[in-house]
Inverse folding.
């Protein structure tokens, strides 16, 4: 153990509510995410409801999954939604050009996705096609999913078996417009956005239109969009950032060394700088913080597992990913005033997945368990905190070892989530809660013997939350001992 870390609650003003949508997920037509992951078809021997795996539905419901983004990613700007409605046998096929050039039979389409979101109790977040689509196509999609009265699209919806609209609120207008979504300049995309957003109208509740956001530290992108898009057309602006060591040679998902672990965490923790700086730009144009920053793709990205299709982006999920998820979610919580939605990429069988499936079995990854431990923060009120932390050093470089966030839920219970990213040392931390009213602390911890440990189909429960006994309350001061690479959730009552 090294010297004492210190944190304290800042209680002179109340923090913002942590929007539950920060805990969102992402389903892309990529590798085995949709087919075999979410969807097996209603003739499968795997237990399903309208073709969607029942084990997956139960697991995601247990996370209180707030929203799900679909159908991409890069795939979204090649997707024509009308290919995925009506009798399945008559649906055309397309080639999934971004992801392995596999044939997409469109058997999982709009009805399948939106009905699945209803089963999950999650808000759907539809990613519209700007790159290769048309304004008419996107405005038709809105009418198809949301229009209550009689119209060409609502009639078609009813013909396809759904009379009442789903009332989809969240709409992405293109994806990575600076890259796979069309290689546009920010100025050009801002104009495209204005045009698309103008023709999206809903007879039901208000739409929440999200602009395709910056690639990581492209601050100019956010500036140009904020300057050029009128406030009445936009509700959110996205940001994508993956924790990656370097794009050419990302390193293995499992057999990484400490240098690679350190580099991944440096990239992951950079999220704090990104969110701070993009928010500051947004503040210039929107000081009342009406427009949300939506981190609709985040997570660790490594080399694909050997012997798997490189176009499917399948990677294993270890304790490194758990620590990465816990640290990133602490960052989002602490920026809840502006970050009001986020989507981990991708839910099943792809990048930093929460679930892996194989045949009729399923594995919950370490990242799943972090999401489950952190669900207590959903819609709770942030308690802003100050922290003085030791460094986690590797060679001549250093990173803050401990991260923390806290919230008070609607029943008055306080939760604190702490992460120690140090690969070698335990960290002692005292937390001044400015409140002697707490009588009891209990906790849960996620850790394992090695950073490289993961849950496999043969050992699915190797890593799972356990009761945590390393926290003690004395006169309102909380003393916690965090083992190396651990994620801890404390409940104070
Ligand atoms: O998550 C994989 C891909 O990464 C997404 O499709 C794209 O938006 C991003 O570049």
């Amino acid at each position: 153990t090294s010297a004492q870390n210190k944190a304290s609650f800042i209680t002179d003003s109340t923090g913002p509510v942590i929007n539950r949508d920060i805990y969102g997920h992402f389903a892309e037509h990529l590798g085995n995410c949709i087919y075999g992951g979410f969807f097996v078809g209603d003739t499968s021997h795997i237990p399903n409801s309208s073709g969607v795996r029942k084990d997956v539905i139960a697991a995601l419901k247990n996370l209180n999954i707030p929203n799900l983004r679909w159908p991409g990613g890069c795939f979204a700007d090649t997707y024509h939604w009308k290919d995925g409605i009506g009798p399945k046998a008559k649906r055309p096929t397309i080639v999934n050009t971004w992801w392995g050039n596999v044939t997409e039979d469109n058997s999982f389409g709009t009805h399948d996705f939106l009905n699945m979101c209803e089963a999950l109790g999650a808000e759907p977040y539809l990613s519209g096609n700007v790159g290769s689509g048309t304004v008419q196509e996107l405005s038709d999609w809105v009418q198809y999913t949301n229009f209550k009265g009689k119209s060409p699209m609502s009639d078609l919806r009813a013909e396809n078996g759904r009379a009442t609209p789903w009332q989809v609120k969240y709409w992405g207008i293109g994806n990575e417009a600076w890259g796979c979504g069309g290689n546009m300049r920010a100025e050009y995309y801002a104009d495209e956005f204005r045009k698309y957003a103008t023709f999206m109208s809903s007879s039901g509740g208000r739409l929440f239109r999200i602009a395709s956001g910056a690639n990581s530290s492209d601050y100019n992108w956010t500036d140009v969009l904020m300057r050029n898009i009128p406030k009445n057309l936009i509700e959110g602006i996205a940001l994508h950032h993956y924790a990656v060591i370097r794009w050419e040679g990302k390193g293995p998902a499992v057999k990484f060394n400490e240098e690679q672990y350190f580099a991944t965490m440096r990239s992951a923790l950079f999220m704090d700088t990104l969110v701070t700086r993009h928010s500051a730009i947004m503040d210039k144009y929107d000081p009342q913080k009406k427009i949300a920053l939506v981190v609709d793709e985040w997570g660790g990205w490594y080399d694909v597992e050997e012997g798997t299709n490189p176009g499917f982006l399948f990677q294993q999920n270890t304790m490194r990913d758990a620590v990465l998820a816990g640290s990133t979610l602490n960052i989002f919580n602490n920026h809840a005033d502006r970050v009001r939605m986020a989507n981990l990429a991708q839910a099943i069988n792809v990048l930093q997945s929460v679930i892996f499936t194989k045949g009729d079995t399923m594995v919950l990854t370490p990242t799943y368990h972090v999401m489950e431990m952190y669900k207590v923060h959903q819609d709770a009120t942030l308690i802003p905190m100050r922290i003085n932390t030791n460094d986690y050093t590797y060679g001549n470089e250093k990173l803050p070892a401990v991260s923390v966030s806290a919230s008070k839920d609607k029943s008055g219970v306080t939760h604190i989530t702490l992460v120690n990213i140090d690969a070698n040392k335990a960290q002692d931390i005292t937390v001044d809660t400015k409140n002697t009213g707490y009588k009891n602390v209990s906790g849960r911890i996620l850790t394992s013997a090695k950073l490289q440990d993961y849950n496999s189909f043969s050992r699915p429960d190797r890593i799972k939350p356990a009761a945590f006994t390393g926290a003690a309350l004395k006169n309102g001061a909380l003393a916690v001992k965090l083992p190396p690479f651990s994620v801890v959730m404390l409940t104070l009552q």
